[in-house]
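Our preliminary data section would be incomplete without showing what the modeling component actually yields. Below, a chain of 313 amino acids is followed by its predicted structure, encoded as tokens that our downstream tools consume directly.
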Amino acid sequence: MPYDGAAEAFASWSGSITAETPTSHTPFLGPMGNTPTSLTFTGLPKHDFLHIQFDLLLIKSLDGVDRIDANWGISGPDYWSLRLDDRPTLIRSAISATPDENGFAFAAKMHTFPSVIPSMPVAAGTGASGMNAEGFVMEFKYADISFPMDGVYHVDLTLPHSAADATITAQGYGLSGTSDEGWGLANVKIDTLSAADVTPLTLQEIEQAWKDAASTDVLQSRDAFWKLVSAADTAVDLLSRQDVPPGFNTADVEGRLDAAVGSDAEAGFEARQDLIAMWPGIESILLRSPQFTGPDDPHPANRHHRPTHRSLR
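Predicted structure:
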């Protein structure tokens, strides 16, 4: 410690494969597929946190949340995950590098990274530090056409950790092979931190982060979530004693209800995913909304069993 992943240092990862990006010649671990790769530390100095930073490279025809292709059968979804030790998975997201071009399925252009809510797809490229700039090209020989396909996403996590040993594991799921779909890690840096190295959050900052974590702005939600994680037991203690329910705007929810059953298929898909991700925080709004319950019954307790927006059920 600290660990700074130069090209020669990637050999310390299990099952490591190394390469350089075609354009910027950045050394990276990969391209990797479904085989997990791990980095293990032993005998760490006394610490309270691990600070993990890296660039996640998404390479070629990753299919995001897509499930069915009319011509080729099942094409996705494609996933990537990150774990620390034997704890619950830190990140498990559908990933896409599919360009926003005609001819590609809409769902293939959507993924759930970097959202911390698995049911909230966003457009591929959301939060990326670069798209289609690293020189990876996918050739579709049957159509004699090719597209640049890559994305770079910076990940910066401060995680409570005090054990003497640590194992970080990254893995893809559902990928068809690295000549077609892959991922990699570049600019990996890992440090141990003491509690004094991490600025504590005030009660007001924790309350705001709790509200922001429920935001439909996926980047704001992500940043707030990991801020709460870095606050560790302080956040748990303060939130357990505070009444800080995430807030939702009634007009915003009702607007999504309208879009969910509207004529625009893409807007409807996005609206339904947003509403699913908001649940159960929006239940009280839905039970009051004639858009959801239907105007024909004056008793809300009865109306909510017969929603007009049946597509949400």
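The first helix runs from residue 203 to 212. Residues 3-195 form a domain with the Jelly Rolls fold (CATH 2.60.120.260). Preliminary results of this kind motivate Aim 1 of the renewal.
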